[in-house]
Write a structure and sequence with these properties.
The longest helix is centred in the middle third of the chain and has 21 residues, at 141-161. The protein is globular. The protein has one domain (3-356): Aldolase class I (TIM Barrel). The protein has 369 residues and is of the alpha/beta class. It is built from 13 helices and twelve strands.
């Protein structure tokens, strides 16, 4: 191991789960699953390659907790008990390589299509996403109760399947983010208006997960630290919310940014700064007084950028997304002192996010495997 990279390979705990290093595989929708959300051999092999490559924590892509929340055609699902066996086989396969495994629990909200879900599009308010353009129906109290319960049921399925923890997808303009943000939440009842009201749905989701899976089952929360749209969330508000999450017992916080209208901030182009959300992660870390691990993503393509973020105390773990598409052995090479052999992501976005938003399965321009 290169001495200077030693910090990347120190163990860390999320709740009671010990993770062998600080390297996280960020959740990325692949469109590798079956149309009903079930696991395929291709999906398992793709993830196993990253587990073999030395990743400490693999967070599976956004898994929809209810059929109304499906966002992509061949996205992972966790909405029914019939999916547990396939997930269990996958987790077992990844555990054989000493990786810890999480699944991200998800509902698309207004950032979806009724043609894809086969049902009405639901959101906090009847306001269309400027990118997706379909006007959703405002969720009724019964709708809210149903989806809150669905998140809890999904967490219990994850626990039964052997996942070490779950992550709540509260980022990137999807349903939970939509409730928190004044940009998308125009409600006038107890779920909208004031900051406290807008935190109600995300906290109900978290409490539902706790009730279903137990207080000892670790839960991470992914948030868009800023939305980068007029009237959207800014870092001061997300720091306030992070503090509330920590006070309520969250086990880790995962920092990203952007919504569909600011998509370049979700998946950054090559000319944007590396480690673009590191300062926001530091703000969140300070807001929670270092009480829980903070993960950060955002255009982190090489182990030395990751090292600097960790050395500076801006985050506790580093989430690599496209860097692990371009090289499944990223972690192993960095640990072996062979960083110069890493097949580095160029940030072209052609094989991954561009294909995904074209409804296709992802690939990588510089990694034909």
């Amino acid at each position: 191991m290169e001495d200077s990279l030693e910090v990347l390979f120190q163990p860390v705990n999320i709740g009671a789960v010990k993770i062998k290093n600080r390297i996280v595989m960020a959740p990325m929708v692949t469109n590798y699953c079956n149309s009903n959300g079930s696991v395929t051999t291709r999906f398992k092999n793709f993830l196993e390659a990253r587990a073999k490559g030395g990743v400490g924590l693999i967070i599976l892509e956004a898994a929809y907790v209810h059929l109304s929340g499906k966002g992509m055609s061949n996205q992972l699902g966790i909405y029914g008990d019939e999916l547990i066996d396939g997930l269990k086989d996958l987790v077992k396969q990844l555990h054989e390589h000493e990786a810890k495994v999480a699944v991200q629990l998800f509902h698309c909200g207004r950032q979806g299509s009724s043609l894809l879900t086969g049902s009405r599009l639901m959101a906090p308010s009847a306001v269309a996403c400027p990118v997706c353009r379909e006007t959703p129906e405002e969720m009724t109290p019964d709708d809210i109760d149903l989806i809150v319960e669905s998140f809890g049921n999904a967490a219990l399925r994850a626990k039964k399947a052997g996942f070490d923890l779950v992550e709540i997808h509260g980022a990137h303009g999807y349903l939970i983010n939509q409730f928190l943000s004044p940009y998308s939440n125009k409600r006038t009842d107890g779920y909208g208006g004031s900051f406290g009201n807008r935190t109600r749905f995300p906290l109900e989701v978290f409490n539902s997960i706790r009730m279903a899976a137990g207080n000892d089952y670790p839960v991470c929360y992914r948030m868009s630290s800023e939305e980068f749209v007029d009237g959207g969330l800014v870092i001061d508000e997300t720091c306030m919310f992070a503090r509330i999450l920590a006070e309520n017992g969250i086990d880790a916080i995962d920092i990203s940014g952007g919504v569909y209208e600011s998509r370049d901030m979700i998946v950054q182009s090559s000319e944007m700064p590396h480690g673009i959300f590191a300062d926001n992660a530091q703000r969140v870390k300070e807001a929670v007084n270092g009480s829980v691990p903070v993960i950060v993503a955002g255009n982190i393509k090489d182990p030395f950028t990751a090292k600097r973020i960790l050395d500076d105390g801006k985050a506790d773990m580093i989430a690599f997304g496209r860097a692990l598409l371009s090289d499944a052995d990223f972690s192993k090479k960095a640990e072996a002192g062979k960083s110069e052999e890493i097949n580095t992501c160029t940030g072209c976005n052609e094989g991954c996010i561009d294909r995904l938003f074209d409804g296709k399965d992802i690939s990588c321009v510089i990694n034909p495997e």
